[in-house]
Structure formats: structure tokens, C-alpha cells
Write a structure and sequence with these properties.
The chain is mainly α. Helix content is 64%, strand content 0%. It is elongated and about 70 Å long. The model has no long low-confidence stretch (mean pLDDT 87).
């Protein structure tokens, strides 16, 4: 038995990553506010601040990743357009 047709190429998932980075930073900010209002332990406040601050380099990295993602998509799929607001 010989198969004459090829399998269609499955494109890998490549979602925009900035929302994930912003979501993580927002979660740490919300946790900081909750711990602050609940008069929680100082260590927990520091952990929330550290998590938020560690999210900044991650956000910058994801911004660059998404910019390169749009460029890759434009080269491989010419009809692909992203609506960007200035």
C-alpha cells in the first residue's frame, strides 16, 4: 500500500506573548495590594514587589519577541496583517 498524498504541514502555535507577561505582572500587583490591605507579612510584600520587578525584563523580552513574530509572519504569510494602533 503506497500513500501518494503528503500530510499537510501543521503550523506551530505562535500566540502573542505580551498579554502573558502583562498578566503575570498584574497578578503580582494585585497580590501586593491584597497583602498590603490585609496587613500581611512583610516577606510576602517583598515577594510581590520582586515578582513584579522580575516581570519587567520578561515584558521587554516578549515585546521584542512579538515584534519579530509579526515580521516572521509577514514574510511567511504575506496576507497576514496585524491592526496596530499608533
Amino acid at each position: 500500500m503506497e500513500v501518494t498524498s503528503e500530510k499537510p504541514r501543521i503550523e506551530p502555535l505562535d500566540p502573542p506573548m505580551v498579554p502573558f507577561a502583562v498578566g503575570g505582572m498584574a497578578a503580582f500587583a494585585v497580590a501586593w495590594v491584597i497583602v498590603l490591605l490585609a496587613d500581611g507579612p512583610t516577606d510576602w510584600l517583598r515577594i510581590c514587589v520582586a515578582g513584579f520587578l522580575c516581570g519587567i525584563p520578561g515584558l521587554l523580552t516578549m515585546l521584542r519577541h512579538d515584534r519579530n513574530r509579526r515580521r516572521r509572519r509577514a514574510l511567511s504569510h504575506p496576507d497576514f496583517r496585524v491592526n496596530e494602533t499608533p
